[in-house]
Design goal:
single chain, 134 residues, alpha/beta, globular
């Protein structure tokens, strides 16, 4: 009986792990043109999850600076709500796409509609996003 219960519990844990993995963020299918239009139309916010030194080297005009290190350290809901609107799409971006996924996973848990971008900062510049002036 104990072995059956143990097998059942193990099966539940395995299925739960698969469900969590299946809900992990994926890069958005939105093109950079769509993302730019949504940002320009105030339907979306661009969130830069790179670190401070990268931000200081250059960032997109109007982007919100929210480094992954800050998100990972357990930013509270009140602080997030001051930085990010819940009624708009959140496009996360970094240098190459990996950190945008990690940040998106965390922001989704806070109830945001997050669409992580695979293209990085340089790709956004190439697609017409404006570099912020120093």
């Amino acid at each position: 009986m104990k072995q059956n219960l143990l097998r059942f519990c193990l099966a539940v844990v395995c299925v739960g792990a698969m469900v969590v993995a299946a809900h992990a963020a994926e890069h958005t299918k939105d093109s950079l043109q769509t993302a730019k239009k949504n940002v320009d139309d105030k339907k979306a916010v661009l969130v830069d999850v790179r670190e401070k030194s990268e931000w200081d080297d250059g960032h997109i005009e109007g982007a919100v600076f929210l480094p992954l290190s800050e998100i990972r350290n357990g930013i509270d809901a009140a602080s997030l709500e001051k930085k990010l609107p819940k009624d708009q799409i959140i496009y996360t971006h970094c240098a190459a796409g990996k950190r945008s996924l990690t940040g998106a996973d965390i922001l989704v848990k806070h109830g945001y509609d997050v669409r992580p971008l695979k293209p990085g900062y340089k790709d956004l510049l190439g697609a017409g996003f404006e570099k912020a002036k120093k």
